[in-house]
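Lab notebook, bench 4. The sequencing result for the construct came back, and we need a structural model before the next group meeting so we can plan mutations. Quick request posted to the team channel:

Model the 3D structure of this chain.
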Amino acid sequence: MCPSYNNIGNVYDRQGCKYEEALEYYQKDLDITVRLVGDHLDVAKSYNNIGSLYVSQGKYEEALEMHKKSLDIKTRIHSGDNHPDVANSFNNIGAVYAGKGDLENALVQYQKALEIRTRVFGSEHPDVAVTIQNIGIVYGKKGDRTAATEMYTKAYHIFLKKLGPDHPQTQGLKPFVNE
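Done. Here's the predicted structure in token form:
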């Protein structure tokens, strides 16, 4: 609701080392937005931004709390989990769990995101491929190279078909796939 504060927070966040300044502006945005509109997608966005900032700092418990608040609002506003915003929150929560080394919970969250994205977008959408790639990353961290390669290959073929061979997403997976 207060895009100026949010935008200033984004600038500090992207600088990579001005976390306190970014948090200050994200928090101002959140406080004003909650006061003006209560439960709203802009509030969920503010929680998401703060959660992502905490991930950048390695503050995973704080990040998890923020992303769960964002998910709660999105689920209520969208009347369930059949919306890309909800899938994005599950994906973000999966990334938090992966970052803190809780790979089983990361897989659970990524699977939820994949289910929603596949249902909403179909099986050959780039957002579906991103989630499949994230699942592959978790399998790689678990030491399951076979499952990781399988996921990377699935994601690669979606990116190849939808984005083309020269797209950075496609190129980024090429070394990891079985063709």
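The first helix runs from residue 3 to 14.
Will bring this to the meeting.
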